[in-house]
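User: Quick sanity check before I run a bigger batch. Here is a single chain. Can you write out its predicted 3D structure?
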Amino acid sequence: MKLTFCGGAKSVTGANYLLELENPRSSASNPRKSAILVDCGLQQGGYFAEKQNFDSFCYNPSEIGAVFITHAHIDHIGRLPKLVKDGFHREVYSTPATRDFAELMLLDSENILNKEAAREGKPPLYSDDDVSKLMSRWKGIEYRRPFEFGAFKIEFFDAGHILGSAFIKIEAENKTIVFSGDLGNSPAPIIRPTEKIESADYCLIESTYGNRFHETVSKRREMLEDAIEDTVKAGGVLMIPAFAMERTQDLLYHLHQLFEEGRIPRVPVFIDSPLAIKVTAVYKKHKGYFNQEVLKTKHAGEDILNFPGLRLALTTEQSKEINNVPAPKIILAGSGMSHGGRILHHESRYLSDSKNMILFVGYQARGSLGERIRSGAKNVRIFGEDVSVRCRVGEISAYSAHADQAQLLEWLAPMQSSLKKVFVVQGEPDASEALRQRITETMRLDAVVPEAGESVVL
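Assistant: Done. Predicted structure follows.
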């Protein structure tokens, strides 16, 4: 097999991997089944409309036999509609939950991307029609249900990252390769733990947190409780820039518990994100993916993602009305890195007041507004105006949906004796290099950080 790193490699954030049979004769009866993709993500950075997203693919989309998707984050699915627009007309496979999330995420991104493209003088990346065509050929496959596609044998395993996320094992030409997708920070509040497998010849492992360690997972609820108590005592506003998928739902679950147990005072909680509200509905549809603890609660009749005092701001008017509610209050709004979205309006309004607090509960990419605030900036620019940062700034990295370095190594360990090579992908250069070095030193494996566009014969 030949593997090409079209994305997810050094300096290219959007995951996109091309896997081709080294001996196409094994699919001579159906040549299109000799090349497949794993993920097809959007490049992300300071702007959503990164120039690379509008570039041609490093392959002919019409010659791809199928696409296999690890999960529904936009850096893994964001260019799928463009793939369709550019000539791909075959099937996409993922878990059923990932399929449902992907439609919401892609339609939401289409609106954002069009605005950015217009500002940059570029044509739209894709349209709603391209999303519709894509979804019409997207198939759902459950975990641990191996199936064949030409000479490839594919199986999805639970990655424990977000609801429905998977790592993918692919067998062909007497070789086995594993694509980690994004691995989870287990145990997670709602979903099941990350699975492991014991044997593979090659592995692509993500490295988002390849040089970092989370706080003890058991402390995250306690840290959230402390942040709420401190802000309420000060009579302030707690702003939480939250990703619409997984982070918002984890926070809702823990807020539900804290209120029910009387650990925090009853104050208004706002979900100011139409996407997060829609994603939460998909969570309730796919409750079969929940872990055993949560399922026990659901069987007792509790709605784990709802509680008295929770208010949903679906419309712009409902979002504006949040300003009229006196503090103390809690606002969860997107985007998670303050790239855009409704959180910017709240940051513009509340960052300059020392009674308030902004709490980061997810990864903040280099160059993002969230990263600048988290790193101690005293002034930031929002909507073309300078805003002073006088509020308290907090962080709970244990809410991250990504495995840290220790968890990544723990996931890789069962495959250690069989692995011929490890490719460290999907991380900023210092994170990828730190993980590569640890794999080489502690596991004595051949580990590399591939370059974008690099091809290797397995």
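Residues 96-120 form the longest helix (25 residues).

User: Great, the batch can go ahead then.
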